Amino acid sequence: MTNWGDQILIYDLNTGKPIDFFSVLNFYYASGVEAVPTITWLN
Hints:
This protein is mainly beta. Helix content is 9%, strand content 21%.
C-alpha cells in the first residue's frame, strides 16, 4: 500500500464549486511551484 498523503478538496460553500485541490496529484503543489497552504481544521 502506498501513502500519497493528504487529499483535500476545497470548495466554495456559497456556489458549491471547487476552488482548489491540495494533493500530490496537483502539479503545482507537487512540483513546489505553489507553497504548501496552512491548513486549519474545523472541529
